Structure formats: C-alpha cells, structure tokens
Amino acid sequence: MSYLVFARKYRPLNFDDVVGQEHVTTTLKNAIKTSRLAHAYLFAGPRGIGKTSCARILAKSLDCQNGPTVSPCNKCDSCLEINESRSMDVIEIDGASNRGIDEIRALRENVKFSPTRGRFKIYIIDEVHMLTPEAFNALLKTLEEPPEHVKFIFATTAPHKILPTILSRCQRFDFRHIPVLKIIAKLEEIAKAEKLSVDKEVLFLIAKAASGSLRDAESILDQLSSFSKERIDVDTIYSLLGMVEEDFIFELTQVLAQKNGIAAMKLVDKLINEGKDINQFIDSFIEHFRNLMVARIGGKLLEGLLDLPDELKEEILKQSQSFSLKQILNTIELLVSAKEMGRVLDSLRIPLEMVIAKLTYVKEVDGQVNKIEEVIRAAEQPVKNNPAVLPPKSEPVNNPADSPVPSLGLENISSVWNEFIHRIGKIRMSVATYLSEAVPFKLEKNILSIGLPKDAKFHKEALERKENRAIIEETFKQLLNRDIKVDFKVTDDKKVNDHEPFIKSALDAFKGKVINQWHNHQD
Fold first, then answer.
1. Could you tell me the pLDDT band of residue 23, with boundaries at 50, 70 and 90?
2. Which end of the chain is more exposed for a tag (fewer CB within 10 A), N or C?
3. pTM for the full predicted model
C-alpha cells in the first residue's frame, strides 16, 4: 500500500473530529437534526483549516445509509466511497482548473439526473472564487431553482471575489484560524498514534510555524518524522525549517530594551550568518512585539489573547515591563516599514539593521536635545527689556560643584568636534551642515573662534543668528561643562596657518588631510 501523508491519514471523519471550528459544526449538526438544510452552503476561510473536510462530512451525513445523521457511520458503501473520493453522487470540482462556462454548462445538464445511491447529489466546488463571471452567471439559474435532490457546497479562501448574487443564495460559514494550543493537542494525538518521540517545545514550534493551519502543521510533523528517525528535538526543527529560536527573540528584545546597539547588531549578524530566513524572522519579531503590546495594555487581564503556552505567557508579561506602550508600537511600525523597504532593496539586511540602529540610538541624547530645544524657544522669543537672551544654566555633568575645573584648550574641542556636529544635526540639520565646513582655530578666555572658507559668507550669517548661536553654545556646554561663546570668521591662509598645531591635532583626530587652502578674505 502506498504511503499516506498525515494530512490525509488523519483527516476528520465526522463533525466531532473537526478541530477549532465548533461554531460551524454545531450549526450544521443542528440544521441536520431539525431538517433545516439549505440547498447551497459557502465555507470561507484560510487554507488548511477544515473547509473541504467539513464539506465531505456534511455530504456523508446526508447520504449515509443511516442519514440524514449528525454522525455518519463511515462503514456503509456511501460513506466509504465519499471517504475515498470515488462517489458518483458527491462530485468534487476544482474551481481553479474548471472555471469556464463550458464546465458549468455541463454541471447544469448533470444536476437533472437523480443520485445513483444516496438521497442527494452533492457538488463540492473548491476555490469557487476562481470561476469566471460568465461561469458564475451560468451557475446562478441553477442556484435559484435547484432540483430537490441537489446540494451545493462551495469552499473559498477569497469570498470577497464571489459575485454578490451568488453569495445571497448561500448560507455562509466563516472558518477561523485554529489556535496554537488546539493544533498542539492534535499533533500530540498523531505523534502518539505514529509512535513518534517529539519534544513538547517542538510541537509548539510546529503549531506556530503553521500560522493557524492544521494541515500545514500535520505536513511539517510528517516531514520531521522522515528527517529524524529517533527523537525529534528543537534543533531538528530549527535546522529543517530555518526558524529562529524563541530564546534568540527574547534575547534580542532584551538588548533593545537596554539600548545596547552593539550587542543587537552582533545578534542580527549571527542570525544572517546562520542562514536564517530574515523575512520569517521579522514576521516572528512583529508577532513577539504584538504579544508585548497586548501584555503591556492589559497584563494578566488580556493573557487570553496570547495564544501561547503558560510559561511563555509569563515571559511575555515580564518582558513587556521593559518597554513603554509607545516604544512597542514604534517598534512594530519600524519593522513593518523594514519589510516594505526590503521589497524595494531586494534585501532585508539593511532595513533590519536600520531598525536596530533607530531603536538603540534614537534616545541617546534625548536629555540634551530637549534641553537645547528649550534654549532655541527662548532665543526665538522677542526681546523686550533684556539686551540678550541667555541659555538656561545646566547642571554640572562630570564634576561636583566644589571640584576644581580643569583647563580647557583646543585639544579638548578637537576631541569632541565630531560628536558636537552630530548632536547639532539632531536638533537643526542646516546648522550642522554649515559647521561641517568650519574649523575651530582659536580659544581665548572661553571665546572660540571658528573659521569658515572664503565662499561661506552666507554660512557665517546663518550661524550668527541668535537662535543658531544659542544651539551651538548650549551644545558645547553639554559636552564640555563650560560656558563657551563662539565667534565666526571668514578666514584667510595666514590665520589658519598661525594655528598649525590645532590643524594637525584635528587631522589626527579625524584621520583627515588638507585638500584645499582658504584664500585671503576680510571678515
């Protein structure tokens, strides 16, 4: 006898065997008991969740020798023929390959003939939405006035594509994704019947990978049973399906909570080097943060919305406290945007690394940014009685108030110049752009002279504006814990060369070289 895959071998044979669709099976059983059967049914929902199986069970319930019955015997000739897909009275049609008007015209001719064995002639049309509009129109007349011995059962994954005139003549049942825990329970039954040694964590991973489809879950278990003749452990499923370990997802989430960009980037690099599916990982990561969102909103009050084992629920509830709800929502938005960018770039590595960079870096200088924004607002207010608007005093950063303040020189400014421009860019990019062409060349009595090239007169005027000057001086104060005033000059060769030691130190600090000399120009 040829090998029978798990999805067929363990297909439900009666309504009570159907997993996760109790709202459908209960209604159908009540209709059979009360003899309130419609002439056409529409079973809608995702793939692999029991639509066709329910259609066959309903057909058996109607044509069983003991029927109509809610419990077909699965022993009579009619039931056996339906189970083996060879019944003359139950005709299964693939809507994708028999979608034309000619096939439907043939169906209309055949419905006139009485069933050969059972009470009803039953047409099961799978993926019915694939029928052409002409085929639907040809079917419409038969649906309006079908013979008493005919029943139609339509199955579809896209009910929105079916003509409203067809929908209005059917009783519609919407099938749902099957919960993870119910899939696990079914897989345990199959593993026991097949004498498979499977870790409980493996069953959870299979159910999660199946995304609510029992058929997919059964197929994965079938594949794993062929791959590993002995015990099926977590390493087997990770290597076979390219899945990302739950521990990895929790670990990456934790370093993101700690704003540890280096550790996060190393974890992403490890993920890629191990050949994991980045698209699948991002989907899993989005789902993880969705769970964190639910836990952050409702805690244990909403744990019923977490389709996870109890021990994982506890981990989710605990980790959700490491983030604000705003941070969680922002992370989900960034991950979704990364997937969109990945379609444009045809690669997901760079978008994913950008997400990591944003999540770990964006808050680094929040305190300084907020403080400087206050300075900007103050500087932009009209001045009435005061001759100048001074930035607010900041608290000492590095030294206690009673400690001696170390001397400040150009070397100190050289060491922070790159960070200084970066912070300016976080507040006002145009100012950072102007300063990127400037060189600080003299520091005397806390007045820093900054040189600009001869063609940068506009830059000088912009930098000297009161609000821009306030940003610059306050940023220096944040970095060096000193009140520093700035003076901008369009500089000639001689002035710069007079301060050759600083130029050398700046070149050393930035690993740069002189590519152009400025020419004489009076300020």
1. very high
2. N
3. 0.60
- State how far the Cα of 228 lies from the Cα of 236, in Å rounded to an integer: 8
Site of tokens 């989710």: 316
Contact 295, 316 (CB under 8 A): yes
Domain 6-174 CATH assignment equals 3.40.50.2300: no
CA–CA dist 489, 500 (Å, integer):
17
The contacts of residue 331 (CB under 8 Å, 6+ apart) are 256, 289, 323, 355, 359
Q: Are 73 and 29 in contact (CB under 8 A)?
A: no
Cβ-in-10-Å burial (0-12, 13-18, 19+) of 71 comes to middle
> Helices 410-427 and 466-480 sit at what angle, rounded to 10 degrees?
120
Structure-token pair, residue 388: 């100048």
The CATH number of 246-361, from 3.40.50.1000, 3.90.79.10, 1.20.272.10, 3.30.420.40, is: 1.20.272.10
Smallest CA-to-CA distance from 221 within 202, 235, 238, 242 is with 202
pLDDT in tens, 387-436: 333 344 444 444 464 444 456 788 888 778 888 888 887 788 778 878 88
CATH match of 371-393+407-510 with 3.30.300.180: yes
DSSP assignment of 377-405 equals: HHHHSPPSS-SSPPPPP---SSS-TTSPP
Q: Which CATH topology does 180-241 take?
A: Helicase, Ruva Protein; domain 3 (1.10.8)
- H or E stretch covering 204: helix 200-210
pLDDT of residue 82: 92
Q: What helix, strand, coil percent values describe the chain, rounded to 5?
A: 55, 10, 35
Contacts of 370 (CB under 8 A, 6+ apart): none
User: Could you give the residue ranges of the DSSP H alpha helices within 118-161?
Assistant: 133-144
